[in-house]
Amino acid sequence: MTAADFRPVLAQDALSGHSVIVTGAGSGIGRAIALRLLALGARVTGVGRRAETLEETGRMAGADAAYAAEVCDVREADAVEALVARVGEAHGLTGLVNNAGGQFFARAEDISPRGWQAVVNLNLNAVFAITRAARPYLEASRGAVVNMSLSPVERGAIGMSHSLAARAGVLAMTRALALEWGGQGIRVNCLGPGTVLTPALADEAHAPHVAKLVAGVPLGRATSPEEVAELTAFLISPAGALMTGQLIQIDGGAHLGVPVNMLGEDGA
Ligand SMILES: CCCCCCC/C=C/C(=O)SCCNC(=O)CCNC(=O)[C@H](O)C(C)(C)COP(=O)(O)OP(=O)(O)OC[C@H]1O[C@@H](n2cnc3c(N)ncnc32)[C@H](O)[C@@H]1OP(=O)(O)O
Ligand SMILES: NC(=O)C1=CN([C@@H]2O[C@H](COP(=O)(O)OP(=O)(O)OC[C@H]3O[C@@H](n4cnc5c(N)ncnc54)[C@H](OP(=O)(O)O)[C@@H]3O)[C@@H](O)[C@H]2O)C=CC1
């Protein structure tokens, strides 16, 4: 199946009555998630540092969409806590999508202490702070958290030691919180997208290298933002009610690595 064959599977009102915070909703994967949750009837609070891109997501959703843009740097723990409390008190909270994240690509020896800190703050510490702030509201609604991870989180990748360390931390946190908060009815999961051809990836990585990554995917293509969005919606919706503590890879098999082939090229 090609990306063009993709069809949404959830019922049109699957998220009616839901209130979800999506970080990084002004671009790429986060925007696709926000638009899909809105289309399924959820109220969405989109969080990011740039007002214009966040507001553009709202315009794309249309005037009837229950969307609010909130400018906030997720690394500012006090501001994040205040934001979550504001949304939680006004509308409740049934979902939190920790999608904001990113990194520069560099070998460990070229990552300065500040560079390491910047990436770990964004991809791990900020995720903990916002998730912790959301807990009481998620407990009240028996809600769900979806953490955006990376396909290579368990097998490693060159040039991503800082980001992978942070995402591995998020994965460990996901499993710990699934246990700690399961009794409160809160579910916590991670998604592992493969290569998603967003403008942000094009800015950070060389095009020929990205093409090579995609060519190496067992199912032969990149992951689309819409596919990640549908899975996110599924996990937040009642359809995902028994799923928690998981890393779900949505990468065409890329996490399996270079195939080990004991049969040789001709399969003999
Ligand atoms: C088969 C499957 C494969 C899957 C592959 C998955 C690939 C993943 C793709 C994506 O994630 S796509 C999203 C791409 N977008 C981004 O990643 C955005 C990247 N940028 C940021 O998020 C931020 O810039 C940052 C990296 C978090 C840094 O933010 P901050 O504003 O705090 O940075 P600065 O104050 O500018 O710098 C802090 C520190 O970092 C050093 N630094 C910054 N860039 C680089 C670099 N390119 N190389 C080395 N070091 C860098 C910077 O120099 C500062 O350190 P000092 O110089 O002060 O020591
Ligand atoms: N593209 C890919 O191939 C893959 C991406 N991912 C992950 O998916 C997520 C989205 O990626 P993608 O859509 O490609 O990238 P984008 O850069 O388009 O998305 C990142 C979003 O996060 C927001 N953001 C970044 N830093 C902060 C901050 N400090 N506070 C608040 N918001 C912030 C950005 O908005 P603003 O700048 O306005 O703050 C932006 O909207 C990231 O976590 C990425 O690492 C995972 C696997 C593969």
TrEMBL record:
Record-level Gene Ontology MF annotations: trans-2-enoyl-CoA reductase (NADPH) activity
Compartment annotation: Peroxisome
Signal sequence, renumbered to the chain: none
Catalytic activity: (2E)-dodecenoyl-CoA + NADPH + H(+) = dodecanoyl-CoA + NADP(+); a (2E)-enoyl-CoA + NADPH + H(+) = a 2,3-saturated acyl-CoA + NADP(+); (2E)-hexenoyl-CoA + NADPH + H(+) = hexanoyl-CoA + NADP(+); (2E)-tetradecenoyl-CoA + NADPH + H(+) = tetradecanoyl-CoA + NADP(+)
Pathway(s) this gene product operates in, as recorded in its UniProt entry: Lipid metabolism
Entry superkingdom: Bacteria
Enzyme nomenclature, EC number: 1.3.1.38
Pfam families: adh_short_C2 (PF13561)
Top-level EC class: oxidoreductase
Sorted UniProt keywords: Fatty acid biosynthesis, Fatty acid metabolism, Lipid biosynthesis, Lipid metabolism, NADP, Oxidoreductase, Peroxisome, Phosphoprotein
InterPro entries linked to this entry: NAD(P)-bd_dom_sf (IPR036291), Peroxisomal_t2-enoyl-CoA_red (IPR052388), SDR_fam (IPR002347)
GO biological process, alphabetically ordered: fatty acid biosynthetic process
Principal location class: other
Protein transport recorded as keyword: no
Job description of the protein: Participates in chain elongation of fatty acids. Catalyzes the reduction of trans-2-enoyl-CoAs of varying chain lengths from 6:1 to 16:1, having maximum activity with 10:1 CoA. Has no 2,4-dienoyl-CoA reductase activity.
Record's subunit section: Interacts with PEX5, probably required to target it into peroxisomes.
Similarity-based family: Belongs to the short-chain dehydrogenases/reductases (SDR) family.
PANTHER family: PEROXISOMAL TRANS-2-ENOYL-COA REDUCTASE
Protein name: Peroxisomal trans-2-enoyl-CoA reductase
